[in-house]
């Protein structure tokens, strides 16, 4: 097993990409902490797995993030892996017409939540002398996404923050990477398609975005995440890996 007896935290772990990571890490032998705002979904997922724990968490609040890390170390003795997956994508306008409150809302979760997760996990990982952190960014952080300035900027910030953290913590044997998914088949994407004037045409447009056919599965993202947090990637740090069907290669 690739994560045998590792202790892994996945924020936003109750659904979508986060849930897929939780299940994949668990299948590979990890003890997994499902950290999420949704108590019902998170507790149900953790209860269905024999080596999982649910922790209710608002990633925007540093004091809660700090306490979670302390509680996990008290329970398991260490933190081997952190996946900062919690994120939102609120519908927004072009920059000139954008709502400042929406901007701050997106940044509070996507950028600040990632920063807080790293900050408080790193304090324990530095003492341990090892650790692996994976931050869920986006293809939107690598190339411009007109009409979604706040989301794109927040994910670009996650990528740059990951690179800085990789350099700052290499001497402690801590690896930090970013994963950059394209359009992934999640409940959020399905809701966007359903709200379209023509859901059939919208789905076809999403499927045609990438050189590779189809919509990316959450399992494909979880497989890439597994590789980056495993010992197989022992010399990969500071990377921003696209899993986007070739979208950013255009």
Please supply descriptive tags for the structure shown above.
single chain; 250 residues; alpha/beta; Rossmann fold; 7-stranded parallel β-sheet; 7 strands; 46% helix
Mean pLDDT: 96
- Summed up, the domain count is 2
Adjacency order of strands in the biggest sheet: 3-2-1-4-5-6-7
**CATH superfamily caption of the largest domain:** NAD(P)-binding Rossmann-like Domain
Enzyme class: oxidoreductase
GO molecular function, one term: oxidoreductase activity
Keywords: Oxidoreductase
Family: Belongs to the short-chain dehydrogenases/reductases (SDR) family.
Polypeptide structure, described:
The chain has 250 residues and is of the alpha/beta class. It folds into 2 domains: 7-181 and 217-243, 3-Layer(aba) Sandwich (Rossmann fold); 183-215, no CATH class. Helices cover 46% and strands 15% of the residues. The protein contains 8 helices and 7 strands. Strands 3-2-1-4-5-6-7 form a 7-stranded parallel sheet, sandwiched between helices. α3 packs parallel to α4 and α4 (100-128) runs parallel beside α5. The longest helix is centred in the middle third of the chain and has 29 residues, at 100-128. It starts with 6 loop residues before the first strand and ends in a 7-residue tail after the last strand.
